[in-house]
Write a structure and sequence with these properties.
Blueprint: H1 5-36, H2 43-50, H3 54-61, H4 64-88, H5 95-109, H6 111-118, H7 133-146, H8 153-172, H9 188-197
Helix pairs in contact: 1-4, 3-4, 4-5, 4-6, 4-7, 5-8, 7-8, 8-9
């Protein structure tokens, strides 16, 4: 049976409604986590928060882990876009410095989001065929910085990311004062770049 314009409109509206519900659930999960931590982000709590039944949440995500995974993937998309903007806005300065400072600011300004992206045990693969494209997009921003500068640009990119993540985590757990990286782009980051380039 051929579809009619009315049938198409109904299908499009249902899709929009589903996408809106999904976005609302993710937004509520992020809001609760930022205020109270991830242990308080449960299906029951989300159901109460946004007035959807628990079966509706399960229909969208399958499980609590599915919700957290969706939040993490959204976070990687935001991180990638933020780093891309930082990398491209540099005309005459150093893009590596700009990306480093932007990454650390992202981690510091959204601690719960950063935690679900990197610290919670979620079944999200990286550097594998099932890797979500949002994660690959975020990592590609580091690769763009070192592309063509060395035969080991991917290794340098991974080293750079690992160093930034280490600083972000040490700062989050208060083992590294945030003031210590206020001059990071001028000192630590550049020395890291020079060391890695020699490899």
């Amino acid at each position: 049976m051929a579809t009619t314009p009315a049938t198409n409109r109904i299908a499009e509206r249902k899709l929009r409604d589903r996408q809106a519900r999904r976005a609302q659930i993710i937004s509520a999960a992020r809001r609760i986590a930022e205020l109270e931590g991830w242990p308080n982000v449960t299906v029951r709590r989300l159901s109460d928060e946004i007035s959807y039944s628990q079966p509706v949440l399960y229909a969208h995500f399958g499980s609590r882990e599915g919700i957290l995974t969706a939040v993490a993937i959204e976070g990687f998309q935001e991180l990638g876009l933020t780093l891309e903007k930082a990398r491209k806005r540099v005309k005459h300065g150093n893009a590596v410095e700009s990306v480093a400072a932007t990454y650390l600011e992202f981690a510091a300004s959204s601690p719960a989001l950063y935690e679900v992206m990197f610290s919670l045990s979620l079944g999200v693969p990286f550097d594998d065929a099932p890797t979500p494209p949002e994660m690959g997009f975020a990592f590609s921003q580091f690769q763009e910085l070192f592309q063509g500068q060395s035969s080991k640009s991917e290794v340098i990119s991974e080293l750079f990311w690992a160093s930034l993540h280490g600083i972000a985590e040490l700062t989050r757990t208060k083992r590294f004062p945030r003031s210590a990286f206020s001059s990071f782009p001028e000192r630590g980051e550049m020395s890291l770049h020079k060391r890695a380039s020699r490899q």
